[in-house]
Amino acid sequence: MNNPNVNYQNMNNPNMINPNMNYQPYPHIMPPPQQQMGMFLNDWKSTLAPIKSCRIKQQFDDREFLADYIMGMKLDFNNKYLILDSATEILKFTAIENSECFNRNCFPKMCIPINMKILRHGKELARPDIVVEKDCSFTVCCLNRPIIKMYDFSDNNNKKLIGTIRTPFSCCSFKFDLFDASNKKIIYMDDTCCQISILCPCPFGPFKFSDYYLRDAKTNERIAHLQKEVPFLKFIKRDIDNYTLNFEDVKNPEWKMMLLAFSLFLDYIYYDTK
Hints:
globular; Phospholipid scramblase; 12 strands; 12-stranded antiparallel beta barrel; 30% strand; 6 helices; Porin; alpha+beta
């Protein structure tokens, strides 16, 4: 029995194409989606890449204040730093030290083993973005100079070396060399330690700011600027300092993070007194 709703004449015509027949005789395999730039970069690199300048603020630790002024004990606890975008004053990263209390209070600064985690604001401490490490070393003058290693931990907590920071021995200057993962020197700093703000730090006038300039290892041209600021909290806690890091010509987010690690290490070694 013929169905009155079916046009058998059109079905028998081989030249007639049914507009409702949009399916294919075989399963259609969809091509894999194309990964577009900017859509998958939900990590620390995408957070740090657009930042041109950042402020590094050391957090005040009440325990050190109580131990020093109430109990009369010179105890040193783990440091914590807030890293903000200078343009917006929005918190971007937090750096938290995780060193043992005995090592911090009994060993010289150059010899202390260091473990510091850097993570984006709101991220769990157990899943850091960056880990900065230094082994315990018996450093005397030019012997066994400390080496800082910075690892990317964002890939399921798998270590990936980004670069290293070394401090050559110098009598009257601050020297730092920054190397990439292949041990190639990329950036260095060699500035005098005789600035008036270093010899007599105070939170006012010319005693408030110290300037450090980082240079390209090939051209010796200045590519970044670190400025140390002495806050008024210096009168309460002697080893607290703030920094402003201008990336200037540094665009690579990995090297921006290296400069952040360098800034924290500079504060830890030379300004974090016991």
